[in-house]
Amino acid sequence: MQRHLYLAAYDITDPKRLHRMLVAVKGYATGGQKSVFECWLSAGEHHDLRTMSAARMDLDEDRFFLIRLDLRQRPMVLGLALPPSDPRFYYQG
Question: Residue 33 pairs with which residues in a beta bridge?
């Protein structure tokens, strides 16, 4: 199964919706912080995450971005951060 690296970022105005979005995105994330996460997604996972995020948002007030990153670009990390990597398996739960 081929996965691509995405940057998932959101801005949610309501605390309850914010928590639901955090739980949904973290289920797919391999790294990140606050409201921006790195996610390795297959086509099906990409679709599922978009569907789940739309169901948790108020489309008039909230924003969600899912941006595919170009792996030819070398990542720049600061401090203790590790560059993104695609592990052999994922535990989602």
Answer: 36
Indicate whether 17 belongs to any domain.
Answer: yes
- In what helix (H) or strand (E) does residue 23 lie, and over which residues does it extend? helix 15-26
Q: Report pLDDT for 70.
A: 85
What pLDDT does residue 21 have? 93
Structural domain count of the chain: 1
> Starting at the edge strand that comes first in sequence, how are the strands of the sheet with 63-68 ordered?
29-33, 36-41, 4-11, 63-68
Structure tokens at 37: 């996460």
DSSP letter at 67?
A: E
Q: Which range marks the domain in which residue 56 is found? A: 4-68
Beta strand 63-68 with 36-41 is: unpaired
Q: What is the pLDDT of residues 11-40, one digit of tens each?
A: 999 999 999 999 999 988 887 788 899 899
